[in-house]
Amino acid sequence: MRPSPIRCGANCSGSVSARLALTALCLTLGACAGVDSSGELTTVASVDLSRYAGTWYEIARLPMWFQRHCVDSKAMYSSRPDGTVGVHNECVTDTGKVDKAEGVATVVDAKTNARLTVVFDNWFARLFGSSREGNYWILDLDPEYRTALVGTPDRRFLWILSRTPQLDEATYRRLVERARQLGYPVADLIKARRPAFS
User: Fold this and answer.
1) 115 SS3 class
2) What is the set of domains in the chain, with CATH numbers?
3) CA 172, 173, 178, 181 torsion: positive or negative?
4) pLDDT tens digits, 112-147
5) Where are the extended beta strands (E) located within 62-187?
């Protein structure tokens, strides 16, 4: 909803700087139209976890301490007999070292399978503090399970994922726009340093 215009009659007084400040405020509010950065985060309606299993390549992410040296990351998910999801993450660092992390994801919204929590058993646990548990919400998923947008409900962490190491620019822009609409700070996205775009 746009703010209603402020009308001044002939007797209206005010400095030029005050009017410029008001104009800047209105432009800022207008630029935020359609962005929800405080409300409930919307996930996809349904996820088939057996189809979601497999390898996903990180195309872009928001800055985060525990991935600060990663230049090329991927995640492998596998269905487990107890209904949880096995997680194996790999990160190639800027020195060429490969860091690995093992974890388990548990569905917390069985109605959609789109909201999970992940617990890692090693250095990745630093992301989640003492609880070692982090949110993994699937925010966008194409019908063929080729691309995904994954984030946390506090909007601090976000990943754009693809089944392939490269992603076409149009699809990337669509996912960025979706993230922007959900209130994520997309201007801060960091792209993987591998050739990520075809």
Assistant:
1) strand
2) 49-191 (2.40.128.20)
3) positive
4) 999 999 998 755 455 545 456 789 999 999 999 999
5) 70-79, 85-93, 98-107, 115-120, 133-141, 147-151, 158-162
